[in-house]
Amino acid sequence: MSVRRICRSLYSSVAAALIISAPFAASAPKEGQFDYRDLSGVWWVDAPGPDKLLDRAENTDAGKCQTCHISEHTVPEPPLTLWARQQLMIRPQMIQNKMGECNPIGVPAQFWYTQLYPFEFVVTPGRIFQLFEKLNEWRVIRLNRGHPKDLLPTNMGDSVGKWDGHILVVDTIGYNGRTLIEPVGVDHQMSPAFHLVERWHRISPNELELDATYYDAMAWGSQPWGGLKKKFILQPKMELLQTPCSPEANKKFDDRFANPSVPPL
Amino acid sequence: MRKGLMRSTVAAVLLFSSTPAVGQEPQGVNPAGGGVPMTSLEHLKAKSSGPAPRTADGKPDLSGLWGPDRNFIIDISAALKPGDKLPLQPWALKLTEERQSKPGAKQADPKANCLPDGVPREDPFPWRIIQTPRLIVFLFEGNVHSYRQIFMDGGHPKDLDPLWYGDSRGRWEGDTLVVDTVGFNDRTWFDGVGHPHTEKLHVIERYRRPDSAHLEFEVTIDDPGAYTRPFTLLGHSPLLVNTEIMEYFCAENGAQDVSHMVGPATFGKP
Q1: Contact present, A114 and A230 (Cβ < 8 Å)
Q2: Which of A103, A122, A245 lies nearest to residue B135, judging by beta carbons?
């Protein structure tokens, strides 16, 4: 067989492979009867309740909210560095300032608030938007690029996502270190080195799991803090309420849910 | 970093100046009564346009990053049709004049206190529309960096609590998105010079995308508590490219130090 024929044969094989694989590459594979890549919708922890925020607050199981005060990690926090231990001394003032002055919450702290407030994923080509009911914050997860080299540090960080089989892996860096890691349960602020990795997995038509791991070289050295696992239930009839921060709205939240051991300013 | 400084500087000049900056003059009024996009974002405007894109279900796709309309930031009377005037009731006119003359009146501006803008007030920053069949969302760089939802299914709930953005329900009339909003609280100002409204406010917005690079909108305001009749404002937004919404949080920005706002809400008017 001549060299030319071998090349033609190879080219034809490659072309055929591309043509055959193209339809599969273009469409999202289905799992069961739902599209696991479609995260659209309002999601909330497994406590669906009345639509109105005040009604939700009143009807939230009182025993459940006892757990609102502690971290939801299933493994203990890694040992703290000296820097992180120094942060502990300023915690009470820091917490009050953050909650009382309508400062940004960001992720992962917003995940803690999902005990009380739902969120919504809005999926568009190249971007997934996550709308949080708490404070009416939002963030964008970019699917069509990696982290920029000249990243400006921000409260929300820069989030990029990619699919790992059935799981959306979201990687966030570029924090300015001014937000809390979690509003309760983690007694020190995040550092600018904070790095968040989330794995979102839609395991059934109406169930979505989050598995998150924190990295912070300034706070924990080389040890990650994993084990943050949450399950959310799709709420097809729910609409996110308006909860922008205003001083009186925040005071009502603090009076109802804030850690009573933190003295007011 | 330079983009952020530029946007912050423009915002500060617009929000806090009581006299025109040297060399600055009003951006010009469109004789047709339309709005005037912000020139500070001029270099980000799309340079060419084509047919307006459509979604898979054939509707016009309003998705994109849009520039603000200056007339919805400073004084909505500049967005009226030619010859029209704001039909303020006497108490509302008196309140507006007080806000424009009293020292320190700016301190009462909800925006100065990092509260939401409401509808239809804008910020001198980009804003994004994301569109799905069930929900359309406006994402704001300014305006406390929040979002506004327009639900495309269902009508207004019966027992509405007064809200900053009201309750918005949208529908398509041909190629026009019609947004009907009720259920406002009375805590926002329509603009920087302090035009008020009440909880009776009812806003109907009509959005059209005549081509890929432009968004046109009409805002009909019906507030029998503050105005003697409905009136309509005309607005335009240019498509912005090669940029993204930046992070901006009012409470952190340091610009909203209300105790230093000793002037009235005039924005260059004598």
Answers
A1: yes
A2: A122
Q: Is A164 on the interface with B (CB under 8 A)?
A: no
CA distances from residue B137 to A158, A200, B164, B179 in whole angstroms, order as listed: 21, 23, 15, 12
Q: Among A121, A138, A179, which would you mutate to test the B interface (most chain B Cβ atoms within 10 Å of its Cβ)?
A: A138
Give B146's contacts in chain A (Cβ within 8 Å).
Answer: 135-138, 244
| Rg of chain A, C-alpha, whole Å | 22
pLDDT reported for residue A251: 62
Q: How many helices (H) and strands (E) does chain A have?
A: 8, 9
Closest residue by Cα to residue A66 from A185, A228, A223: A185
Residue with the two structure tokens 């849009």:
B66
Q: What is the pLDDT of residue B75?
A: 95
Q: Environment class of residue B268 by beta-carbon count within 10 Å: exposed (0-12), middle (13-18) or buried (19+)? A: middle
Locate B54 and state its tokens. Answer: 């459509």
Of the candidates A131, A178, A242, which has its C-beta nearest B137's C-beta?
Answer: A131
Q: Distance, in angstroms, between A209 CA and closest chain B CA?
A: 23
Where are chain B's structural domains? 2-15+33-46+53-260
Q: How far apart are CA A225 and CA A76, in angstroms?
A: 8
Q: Which whole number is the average pLDDT over B119-132? A: 95
Q: Which two tokens stand for residue B147?
A: 């979002």
- Evaluate the omega torsion of the peptide bond into residue B157 and state whether it is cis, within 30 degrees of 0: no
Give the whole-angstrom CA distance, residue A132 versus residue A42: 10
Complex ipTM value:
0.82
